[in-house]
């Protein structure tokens, strides 16, 4: 007769917990499959088997995808702690060997990625070649608690309190136009009547949108973009005027400051991580490196 411990082992294995965590993070069969590097049918069959073995529902399927039940969230929490401890063990092993190693998933906006990180990350990877960087450009803040990413780098005045962070500096912004556009306007730019390039409704709460609406309530933008990087690109190609971080256009030969820096638009650049992984060596090294090398 099997002992209760042996029976428990046959019901729930480490691989089962890993799958539960992957589905809790991915919120879909495809998302979990990509994390585990298997096909979606394997994820589907496996989660059904686990639920059958446990005699309990772990996920409810709704409009937002696969949402964990209370038991599913609890098991995902255990899986996450196991994952963290495994990472710690790998860090200890790496320190006992040679240099830091492992994957490091960084999420940030395309603006910060192209304007601040890519110019310096080559030096980081050259110094630590065993650290594998995964760069995720998105305007939404990844859920670090669900480990959608290890580190988030964001421009914000108020970083989330549940994350640990390092302030990398302040980001000034200004209203820009290209020299070609200034010339077409005979050197006179009226901010009330100029062709504005602005962020679209997907970023309606962006500070530049709120500032423009308060400062120039009658302005109707002629062009709308879904990223700050696209606004800056449209400016340098002469479509009109727009707000952009100064680090992005400061050295561009076509860019001209029309007004600014605008004090109301200044934000801090923060590097954020979940408390469970803040002590990992590769995370500490990235914090230290960016504090030293990123310049706004």
Summarize the structure.
With 296 residues, the chain is of the alpha/beta class.
**How many distinct domains?**
3
Biggest pleated sheet: 5 strands, mixed
Helix content: 40-55%
CATH topology of the largest domain: D-Maltodextrin-Binding Protein, domain 2
- Number of helix segments? 11
Give the distance, in angstroms, between the N- and C-terminal Cα atoms. Answer: 67 Å
The CATH class label of the largest domain is Alpha Beta
Please trace the helix and strand order, writing H or E for each element.
Answer: HHHHEEHEHEEEEHEHEHEHEEH
Tell me the radius of gyration.
24 Å
CATH architecture of the largest domain: 3-Layer(aba) Sandwich
Side by side, the strands of the main sheet go 4-3-5-12-6
State which percent range the strand residues make up: 15-25%
Instruction: Categorize the overall geometry.
Output: elongated
Overall mean pLDDT: 86
Category from helices, strands and their pairing:
alpha/beta
State the CATH superfamily name of the largest domain. Periplasmic binding protein-like II
The counted number of beta strands is 12
In terms of quaternary structure, the protein is: single chain
Give the uncertain stretches in residue-range form. Answer: 1-9
Pfam families: HTH_1, LysR_substrate
Family: Belongs to the LysR transcriptional regulatory family.
Domain HTH lysR-type: 12-69
GO molecular function, one term: DNA binding
């Amino acid at each position: 007769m099997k002992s209760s411990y042996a029976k428990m082992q046959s019901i729930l294995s480490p691989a089962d917990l890993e799958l539960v965590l992957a589905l809790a993070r991915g919120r879909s069969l495809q998302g979990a499959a990509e994390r585990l590097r298997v096909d979606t049918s394997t994820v589907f069959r496996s989660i059904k088997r686990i639920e059958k073995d446990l005699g309990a529902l772990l996920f409810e399927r709704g409009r937002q995808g696969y949402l964990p039940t209370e038991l599913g969230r609890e098991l995902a929490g255990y899986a996450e702690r196991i994952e963290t401890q495994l990472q710690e063990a790998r860090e200890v092993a790496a320190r006992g060997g040679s240099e830091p190693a492992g994957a490091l998933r960084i999420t940030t906006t395309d603006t910060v990625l192209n304007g601040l990180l890519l110019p310096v990350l080559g030096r980081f990877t050259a110094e630590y070649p065993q650290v594998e960087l995964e760069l995720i450009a998105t305007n939404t803040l990844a859920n670090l608690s669900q480990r959608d990413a290890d580190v988030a780098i964001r421009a914000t005045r108020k970083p989330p309190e549940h994350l640990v962070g390092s302030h990398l500096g302040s980001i000034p912004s200004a209203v820009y136009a290209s020299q070609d556009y200034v010339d077409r306007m005979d050197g006179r730019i009226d901010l009330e009547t100029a062709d504005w390039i602005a962020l679209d409704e997907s970023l309606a709460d962006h500070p530049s949108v709120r500032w423009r609406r308060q400062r120039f309530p009658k302005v109707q933008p002629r062009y709308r973009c879904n990223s700050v990087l696209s606004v800056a690109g449209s400016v340098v190609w002469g479509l009109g005027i727009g707000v952009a971080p100064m680090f992005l256009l400061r050295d561009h030969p076509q860019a001209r400051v029309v007004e600014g820096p605008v004090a109301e638009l200044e934000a801090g650049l923060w590097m954020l991580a979940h408390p469970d992984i803040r002590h990992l060596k590769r995370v500490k090294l990235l914090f230290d490196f960016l504090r030293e090398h990123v310049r706004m």
